[in-house]
Amino acid sequence: VGQPEGFVLSPESSLRVRVFERELAFANGIPLLSRDMQTPVQVTPKLTNSSSTVPEEVTVTTLDPSKIVLSSDGGLTSRDSLVVPMRVPMVLQAGPGATPGDRVRIRLASPGYATTEAEVRIAPAELQRYSDSVLELQPENDFNRLDLVYGPVDSPLATAVSQSFSGAMKPGIDVFLTVTSSDPSVVEVAQPQVRLDRSMQVRLRALRPGSAELRVEAPAGIDNKIAPIPVTVLPFRFQLTRSESPAAFLVSRLTIRNPRKQAVPITFSAPASSVLFGTAASGSAAPSLSILTVTVGPSEERSIFLQATSPQQSSANIRVSAPDFVTLDEYLSIQKPVIRFNQSGPVVAALGNGSMTVSLVTGVNLSELPLGNSLGGPLRIQLQSSNPQVVRVPATPVEIQPGESRKSAVLQLTGRGEAVVSFITASGFDAGTNQTISVTVR
Fold this sequence. Notes:
The protein is mainly beta. The chain is built from no helices and 39 strands. Helices cover 0% and strands 45% of the residues.
């Protein structure tokens, strides 16, 4: 730049201009690879704010084909050099000559950009478990599995396969692992031969509760970091449902389901015979046993009937047990048994009918439960009328037999007017909400 007349030229007043060429690089930094593995990469300009809308191509060339070759799609066909669109994935493949610690250079060239030599780092690969968590399996579950991983380890201090590595084994590398169980009657390996890859799932069949050990064996050349794996198959668990609240003198029901694929003998018991068990509500199979063992078929649901033996007890515990099952201790809240009329509200009857029928029901609250055999016979209920000149009740008690939950009684209509029909509550029973019936005879 020339100086106007009268000005002195100063060295610091000159303008220096330095022109930088655009450079290329791999999109996510230095790629990591291990022998016989491959990983996808993309080539992009180092300046990410490039506004070019013209499709650009880049020539990618490996400078050591014995260690790294190139593929457009990750297939069996590989080359030393490829022309690929910028920002479009291609694949780097590590060959048998790749050695941990190598840094292989890859040339990147494209018109308008400085020719760049990018670097690929070769790291040692290890075979590991995906997680070191305790392996506890659900019995007879087809979805149990062992997860394995294989891939490069970032550094000598790292203890796990790189989580950022998104590659896989190269095509044509057929290396197989062998997975065995120390006790196939407890844990069976459904797929003993597993092809080596970035991630692998080994299907396991947990056949019965117990313990075993899994071993993963790899061929020579594979750095296997998997020690023998302790496996526990958990015991089965009962599936028990109770839709009815138990009550003294009455029979309630619970339903148990066998989750196994084979028949199981299941035992029900209660301390001090506080609860009796049976397989039916009445008859010879009615609850009468303090210990009951029933064989429940594969995946079968079975109803078990029970009754409390003492009207004074407010709670009880029952125990359910079977081989290979977690013993279940179930707490029962024992309710007060109730007698009630099945009808509710006032009743209007015509004298000309001569009679009307009412029903007495045993149960808990609004549920209906049959009478057990702990009374030693039927439940006798005496009806009474506030006005026998209008409604006359039977002279003999109504009898509800063991196994029955209701009984009807015939009331005689003897005159017009109003009467209240009630009953004398049996010892040990409560009167329910419907303990009287108002009758109007017209």
